[in-house]
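We were asked to recover a plausible sequence for a given structure. The inputs and outputs are reproduced exactly as logged, with field labels preserved.

PROBLEM: sequence recovery
POSITIONS: 205
GIVEN STRUCTURE:
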């Protein structure tokens, strides 16, 4: 099910009461619609709850097979179906099975996070342009730098703080830049962005 969450009840109302009778598995990518609510709604349309269902949230980079998807499942879902869904989604990136109680926060990190990173890349590029680098070169350098830094976290298995310290030589140019980021609240801004997106995902705002 991939309709907008605000209209899914209207869409279901248009279906007859046997619409899902022969459906082997329902997978929902609707934000903010929890498993129990979805189970209740589709049961009215003939879906057998013991078949289980999946709540899935892919992110934009799945379009280039570099996505970070999350999924949670109903209690009835069999392990072979969970493994099948993971296998499918791992063709377009990583897929992590998490508890539903952390689904909204994980959606904010993985689903909304690309927009935050795009803004960071744009800002890095702007900084390069300010210093005299042409736009095309600066954008390529910024994007590659972010990609390389992300790969190091995933592949080297070191904490980001340790890797940051490795770049910051004593009295060097990097620590001066880090000082400005701290002064201007980079960490707090990102934390608050994820927190705000989490609240929106859960319907609190």
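RECOVERED SEQUENCE:
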């Amino acid at each position: 099910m991939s309709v907008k969450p605000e209209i899914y009840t209207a869409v279901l109302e248009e279906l007859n009461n046997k619409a899902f009778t022969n459906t082997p598995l329902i997978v929902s990518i609707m934000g903010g619609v929890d498993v129990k609510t979805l189970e209740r709604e589709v049961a009215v349309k003939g879906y057998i709850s013991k078949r289980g269902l999946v709540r899935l949230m892919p992110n934009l980079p799945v379009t280039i097979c570099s996505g970070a998807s999350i999924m949670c499942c109903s209690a009835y879902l069999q392990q072979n179906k969970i493994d099948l869904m993971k296998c499918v989604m791992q063709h377009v990136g990583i897929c992590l099975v998490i508890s539903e109680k952390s689904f909204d926060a994980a959606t904010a990190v993985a689903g909304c996070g690309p927009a935050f990173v795009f803004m960071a890349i744009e800002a890095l590029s702007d900084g390069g342009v300010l210093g005299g680098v042409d736009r095309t070169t600066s954008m390529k350098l910024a994007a590659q730098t972010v990609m390389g830094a992300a790969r190091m976290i995933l592949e080297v298995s070191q904490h980001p703080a340790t890797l940051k310290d490795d770049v910051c030589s004593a009295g060097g140019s990097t620590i001066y830049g880090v000082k400005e980021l701290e002064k201007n609240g980079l960490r707090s801004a990102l934390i608050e962005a994820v927190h705000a997106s989490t609240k929106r995902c859960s319907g609190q705002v």
